[in-house]
Design a protein that fits this description.
- With 95 residues, the chain is an alpha+beta fold.
- It has helices at 2-8, 10-16, 53-65, and strands spanning 33-37, 43-47.
- The chain has three helices and two strands.
- Helix 1 (2-8) packs across helix 3.
- The mean pLDDT is 83.
Length: 95
């Protein structure tokens, strides 16, 4: 499946994204993977084992669009610089 992606989808992905450096390597006896190296010295590796060429293209697009850092979990759902003195509004407030 990964070879089909390299033959059919990879050349068009390279042409449509000239800002990326795309390197294809053939490693025997290893599962196929995509590796994204970012300018902030981070890297992200995604396994593409048993994926169709369309799914591999989707993973490559997601690697291109991501920032290369871990997702930050917010402590609260409501983030503001100036919190309300009266408290946050909820749906079960009694007026």
């Amino acid at each position: 499946m990964y070879r089909a992606f390299m033959e059919s989808e990879l050349p068009s992905f390279k042409e449509s994204n000239p800002q990326l450096e795309v390197v294809a390597e053939l490693n025997r006896s290893q599962h196929p993977y995509l590796k994204g190296l970012y300018k902030n010295k981070n890297e992200r590796v995604v396994s593409v084992m048993n994926m169709t060429p369309e799914d591999v293209l989707l993973c490559a697009t997601r690697l291109r669009n991501s920032l290369g850092r871990k997702a930050v979990k917010l402590k609260t759902r409501h983030v503001t610089k100036h919190p309300s003195v009266q408290g946050t509004w909820t749906t079960d407030m009694q007026i």
